[in-house]
């Protein structure tokens, strides 16, 4: 922040307050400018009868330092707030449906139905592609008479 002050001495200075104005300012809100002017008025009234320009400038300088500290504090609070919001958002993203026995059984039934459907589609595709040959394991699983067929063959 920055401000330029212009002081004009009156004839009866230091028994009268000098004229002062803010010629230019950077990064100050209207409220801050108003506070600086009030501070100048207060300090000028308190220091009547004494040389006061240095005192007025020092008071404004302290006020500007306070304003800088407030801006830093505000920025830090905004940064912390953003981090907190991001953390909450992250927590919400990983928060899901709690698993209960009923939820799990419903999911398992749907999952098994989907797997069965996938297997059926795969079998149909294989049949259409001419891959009617079954593996040995599939043959034994489908026809239990094959379990004893080798024994009968050896007996003969």
Give your account of this protein's structure.
Residues 75-95 are annotated as: Disordered. Residues 75-93 have a biased composition (Basic and acidic residues). Residues 1-67 form the RWD domain. The protein has 156 residues and is mainly alpha-helical. The chain has two domains: 2-78, Roll (Ubiquitin Conjugating Enzyme); 97-155. The chain is 67% helix and 10% strand. A two-stranded antiparallel sheet has the order 1-2. Helix 1 (30-46) packs antiparallel against helix 2. The protein is rod-shaped. The chain starts with a strand and ends with a helix.
Low-confidence stretches: none
**Mean pLDDT, nearest integer?**
87
Alpha-carbon distance between the termini?
107 Å
Q: What is the H/E string?
A: EEHHHHH
CATH fold assignment of the largest domain: Ubiquitin Conjugating Enzyme
Q: Please describe the biggest sheet, giving its number of strands, its sense, and whether it closes into a barrel.
A: 2 strands, antiparallel
Structural class of the helices, strands and pairings? mainly alpha
Proportion of residues in β-strands: 5-15%
Domain module count? 2
């Amino acid at each position: 922040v920055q401000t330029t002050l212009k002081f004009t001495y009156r004839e009866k200075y230091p028994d009268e307050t000098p004229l002062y104005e803010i010629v230019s300012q950077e990064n100050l809100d209207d409220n801050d400018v108003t506070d600086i002017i009030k501070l100048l008025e207060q300090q000028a009234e308190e220091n009547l009868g004494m040389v006061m320009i240095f005192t007025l400038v020092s008071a404004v300088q302290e006020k500007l330092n306070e304003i800088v500290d407030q801006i830093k504090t505000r920025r830090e609070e905004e940064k912390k707030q953003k981090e907190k919001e991001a953390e909450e958002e992250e927590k919400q993203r990983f928060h899901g449906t709690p698993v209960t026995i009923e939820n799990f059984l419903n999911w398992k039934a749907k999952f098994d139905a989907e797997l069965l459907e996938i297997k059926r589609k795969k079998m149909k595709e294989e049949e259409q592609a001419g891959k009617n040959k079954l593996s040995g394991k599939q043959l034994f699983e489908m026809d239990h008479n094959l379990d004893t067929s080798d024994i009968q063959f050896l007996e003969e």
